[in-house]
Design goal:
The complex is a heterodimer. By secondary structure, chain A is mainly β. Helix content of chain A is 8%, strand content 50%. The longest helix of chain A is centred in the first third of the chain and has 27 residues, at 3-29. Chain B is built from 18 helices and no strands. In chain B, helix 13 (270-295) packs across helix 16 (322-350) and helix 15 (308-316) packs antiparallel against helix 18 (387-414). Classes of the chains: A mainly beta, B mainly alpha.
């Protein structure tokens, strides 16, 4: 190496150090970019009957944590507190808010009370996907996408992890992977088991429904928290959601092997099901506005459609996701 | 031949200790190590945050990331062979390697400027993979041609240690930046670009393109000569042994998954397994390389392969304690230190100077395809007969592969040109 080359390299190192350090410092001093200031906009009249809790979506950056809003008589109200999340659920004085941690590289869940005050914080091992709270506020359920432990399918495929929480203490009650599963009365187990999308039975928080993915099938399972057991009911049901009266389950039904779904509703007693008037692909765990209507996110907005298969989808709220029915207000 | 050397070493441990204390490595090898270190800092920074960036900033589903990442595996393998031959044919290993490093640097610049669409990211990942495929064979040929034949394994050990140091620093730096400036992925990309540019600059300014052993007066090799390497009596046994050993070895990713299932520890600690293995690899690469130069590359290579049995033993345990886990990861690091670099050093010693890059390109391709096949096979076995049975089947296959590789490698080395 000639000394000229050495001087060039030294100069280059100095320039790179200055530019790099300067850029990082400027970025560090800039505004917090994990949370958006976006707010939802009411668009439909059907809301007059039911109050909703939603999360604001920033259309230019939908994955940023969104503030929690309440929609009351069709009017959008910002709740106090600085709670911001990617997925939210609430029932009987306890809520779950899953989102990006302040570090910007980790995810966390917060358990909050009726004033949106964070009570407990839980580190998440993957990207937030689904959240639910039992109607009595006793148990919560969270599903995250985890990378790294599903090499069996493909080197970088994602798997899911679903946890049940004690909403009073914030402690983990169980992971669904630890439950014993039966199918047709016989024990059922495989290394590629994935669970997601819990829905608790209204009025009986010990019982729940969820999805078990294995070997290309997506089974509806019925579970018992105390007994730590689940049994397979039928195939082709993802992200189940029980109606307020517990008689029907709205779910997404996969078309072929791809990432495309249609919403359907099944009868819990007979397991008979029917299609809904929504013909677009919906990837959400839907919520029920009442026993006749479901609400779900499509794109950056919320839509409602009748559960009996009639009618047509109706735009409810712009720039919102993660709808929660507030049965008795706050 | 190596056995005589080995007994000499045993008789004179003090002399050996004195010699190993002075680590004489050609300047060019250290510079190439520095290029790899800087480039690995750059690419690992991006690789660490890319899944987060796609999902967090671009709103992609986590499943999209798997598709983008998986698309370009395998394509790099074919590029390696072509770039190896091109480097020999034009006798420009530095130029061809520079093209590969340059492509990756351009990819990083593109990430800063146009990396805000899924299609853009896909193209950038493709360019980066191709760049990596292009540079590997000519860079290893340069390391080989810069080293005396009896110091090859040490040189590769030094290079691999520096390379993995970069791969460990990258994620640390990326997380450090995101900790200071949450969600500012652009800052990570800018710093990554600067490291890529520095790596390229060290290559251009400080790496000698025509090192000591580089061919000078010989005619440029024809394609037929490069293709004939596959049946060449010295090199073909090496390729066959490398193929057998890599197919019969359970990939590290599978070992980590297996460990996770036996230990059932917090998945958030999963990356620690990689880090601990990388630390063991980094610490062992140089001493193992020196050992290979002293007692012979073949016995060190075979002993390194045999270290896998330690990890298999731990995988078979019903519950794994922290001591067993540490032992397992140490053995895995030792396996890495004693196999890929030593195998490449062996190839460097066997190959004619005019065909170094072509031969190394072939070897790396055989190894990476072998590992890919191994992952698929192990995954299928795990799914059908369970993990423990799959490990037993692979252990038996590895015994067979080592038993077949030993005579092949000895034969190849006996036919090697005199040192």
């Amino acid at each position: 190496m000639s000394s000229r080359n050495g001087r060039i390299l030294l100069g280059l190192v100095a320039v790179c150090l200055l530019v790099g350090a300067g850029y990082v410092v400027a970025a560090a001093l800039g505004p917090d970019e994990t949370t958006t200031k976006a707010r939802p906009h009411s668009a439909g009249a059907a809301l007059a009957k039911t109050d909703l809790m939603v999360r604001a979506v920033d259309p230019s950056n939908p994955r940023l944590n969104g503030r929690v809003y309440e929609i009351n008589d069709g009017k959008v109200k910002r709740r106090s507190g600085d709670l911001a999340c990617e997925r939210v659920y609430y029932a009987a004085g306890r809520g779950i808010c899953m989102g990006v941690a302040p570090s910007g590289v980790d995810y966390r869940a917060q358990i909050f009370d009726s004033q949106l005050r964070p009570l407990h914080e839980i580190a998440l091992t993957g990207f937030p996907s689904r959240a639910r709270v039992s109607t009595d506020g006793r148990y919560g359920a969270m599903t995250v996408f985890v990378s790294g432990d599903s090499y069996l399918q493909s080197p970088s495929a994602f798997s899911t992890r679903t946890t049940i929480l004690n909403m009073k203490s914030g402690a983990q009650v169980a992971q669904l992977e630890q439950f014993a599963v039966t199918k047709d009365g016989k024990p059922f187990d495989a290394v590629d088991f994935n669970f997601w999308g819990i829905t608790f039975v209204p009025g009986d928080s010990n019982r729940f429904y969820a999805t078990l993915g294995t070997g290309g099938s997506h089974y509806l399972v019925e579970g018992d928290v105390a007994a730590r057991s689940m049994r397979v009911l039928r195939d082709g049901v993802e992200c189940p959601s029980l109606s307020p009266d517990g008689k029907q389950i709205a779910y997404k039904s996969r078309l072929g092997d791809g990432e495309e779904w249609r919403l359907r509703v099944l009868d819990v007693k007979t397991l008979d099901d029917h299609a809904l008037a929504e013909t677009r692909s919906i990837d959400d765990q839907v919520e029920w506005l009442d026993n006749e209507t479901i609400v779900y996110a499509y794109g950056n907005d919320l839509y409602a459609v009748p559960a009996d298969g009639g009618g047509e989808p109706q735009l409810l709220v712009r720039d919102a996701s993660s709808p929660v029915r507030l049965s008795s207000g706050f | 031949m190596y056995q005589v050397e080995a007994s000499k070493v045993l008789l004179k441990p003090r002399l050996w200790a004195a010699r190993s204390a002075r680590l004489r490595v050609p300047r060019n090898v250290v510079m190439l190590g520095l290029v790899s270190l800087l480039t690995d800092v750059s690419s690992e920074m991006v690789a660490t945050v890319l899944p987060l960036y796609l999902i967090f900033s671009l709103g992609a589903s986590p499943l999209v990331f798997g598709a983008i990442d998986g698309t370009y595996r395998g394509a790099a393998a074919l590029v390696q062979v072509a770039s190896g031959f091109a480097s020999d044919r034009w006798r420009r290993p530095k130029g061809v390697a520079g093209l590969g490093y340059g492509l990756s640097a351009v990819g990083k610049v593109a990430l800063v400027t146009v990396g805000n669409t899924l299609g853009g990211i896909g193209a950038i990942v493709a360019v980066d993979r191709i760049g990596k495929g292009i540079r590997t064979a000519p860079r290893d040929a340069l390391i080989s041609l810069s080293s005396a034949k009896d110091r090859l394994a040490t040189s590769f050990g030094v290079h691999r240690a520096m390379d993995s140091a970069g791969a460990m620093l990258g994620p640390l730096l990326a997380f450090g930046i995101l900790f200071l400036a949450p969600a500012r992925f652009d800052a990570v990309f800018v710093v990554s670009t600067l490291f890529a540019v520095l790596g390229l600059a060290v290559l251009i300014l400080n790496v000698q393109g025509k090192p000591d052993r580089a061919p000078r007066d010989e005619a440029a090799p024809k394609l037929r000569a490069a293709l004939r390497l596959v049946v060449e009596p010295r090199f073909a046994p090496l390729l066959i042994a490398a193929a057998g050993l890599s197919v019969a070895s359970i990939s590290d990713a599978m070992i980590y998954v297996g460990l996770q299932r036996s230990i059932n520890f917090d998945p958030a600690l999963f990356p620690l397994l990689y880090v601990m293995t990388a630390i063991a690899f980094m610490g062992l690469a140089i001493p193992v390389g020196q050992l290979a130069d002293r007692i012979g590359k073949v016995p060190v290579l075979l002993a390194g392969q045999a270290l896998l049995f330690v990890t298999y033993g731990v995988l078979m345990m019903s519950s794994v304690g922290y001591l067993a886990l540490a032992l397992c990861l140490l053995a895995l690091g030792g396996y890495f230190a004693a196999t890929e670099g030593v195998l490449t050093a062996l190839a460097g010693a066997l190959l004619p100077e005019t065909l170094q890059a072509s031969g190394i390109g072939l070897l790396i391709t055989v190894i990476s395809l072998g590992r890919l096949l191994s992952s698929v096979l192990f995954g299928a076995l795990w799914f059908t007969v369970g993990m423990q049975s799959a490990v037993v089947i692979f252990a038996v296959a590895l015994i067979v592969a080592i038993a077949l590789a030993a005579p092949l490698l000895h034969r190849a080395q006996r036919l090697a040109p005199n040192e």
